[in-house]
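queue> pop job 88
queue> type: inverse folding (structure -> sequence)
queue> payload:
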């Protein structure tokens, strides 16, 4: 597998209605890429029982009855900063699901929900950081592809 890592925060992915994370141009010959959320930190002035990080894109190996995007990970309160009433959220688990998306996907559109499934407003966030892992399948050497192309052209 060939791996790439994508970092996103308020500078690389400014806050709007949703967080849009640009993805690098991948290996165009690869039909798909596996994506997972490795790290996530959220700073909010709102306390909730947990925040679910979701993407609008639908991978081929995911199902949810709510049809509201794909859950990348679940966060919980790491610690509270009592003086300013800020709540620091981090991923609950070291291992998060790995999803199969098209390799020509150029952006991830993220949104947040609380653990009840209600939208969590981005206006409640003062900072956020994400690290994603992209895994591309191994590609055959170019010489093999050229050999197959020549055989197909000759009708073999």
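queue> result:
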């Amino acid at each position: 597998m060939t791996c790439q890592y994508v970092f996103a925060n308020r500078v690389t992915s400014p806050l709007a209605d949703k967080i849009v994370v640009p993805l690098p141009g991948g290996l165009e010959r690869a039909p798909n890429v596996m994506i997972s959320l490795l790290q996530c930190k959220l700073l909010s002035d709102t306390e909730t029982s947990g925040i679910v990080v979701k993407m609008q894109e639908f991978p081929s190996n995911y199902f949810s009855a709510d049809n509201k995007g794909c859950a990348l990970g679940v966060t919980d309160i790491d610690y509270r900063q009592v003086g300013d009433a800020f709540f620091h959220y981090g991923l609950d688990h070291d291992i998060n699901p790995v999803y199969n998306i098209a390799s020509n996907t150029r952006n991830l559109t993220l949104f947040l929900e609380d653990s009840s499934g209600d939208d969590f407003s981005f206006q409640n966030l003062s900072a956020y950081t994400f690290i994603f892992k992209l895994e591309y399948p191994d590609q055959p050497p170019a010489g093999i592809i050229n050999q197959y192309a020549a055989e197909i052209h000759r009708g073999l």
